[in-house]
């Protein structure tokens, strides 16, 4: 799993990690039943604390996307529905727009121009 974090992103790191995993599941990189790498390995690869990764994994478990099994690690419980994936991408877009000086209304205007 190739995850990247934007250290300039104002969102907490655990939200960025959860979003990246959510996208990977939604895009089909991981399918139901697939095991994720251990939290320590993910944390090491990302250069962050393993507790941050664990918090992201717990959030995704609470959403029903992941399941924790003793002795088996963390696996994908289900797929992200299209709406949830779209909401995550829109959140990312809104954050990106804010970094460039645009607000929600500006994005709505741009979307209306595209339709």
UniProtKB/TrEMBL annotation:
Entry keyword set: DNA-binding, Transcription, Transcription regulation
TM region positions: none
Gene3D superfamilies to which the protein is assigned, alphabetical: Winged helix-like DNA-binding domain superfamily/Winged helix DNA-binding domain
Pfam families for this protein: GntR (PF00392)
Gene Ontology MF terms in the entry: DNA binding; DNA-binding transcription factor activity
InterPro entries on file: Tscrpt_reg_HTH_GntR, WH-like_DNA-bd_sf, WH_DNA-bd_sf
Domain HTH gntR-type: 11-79
Coiled coil: none
Name assigned to this protein: GntR family transcriptional regulator
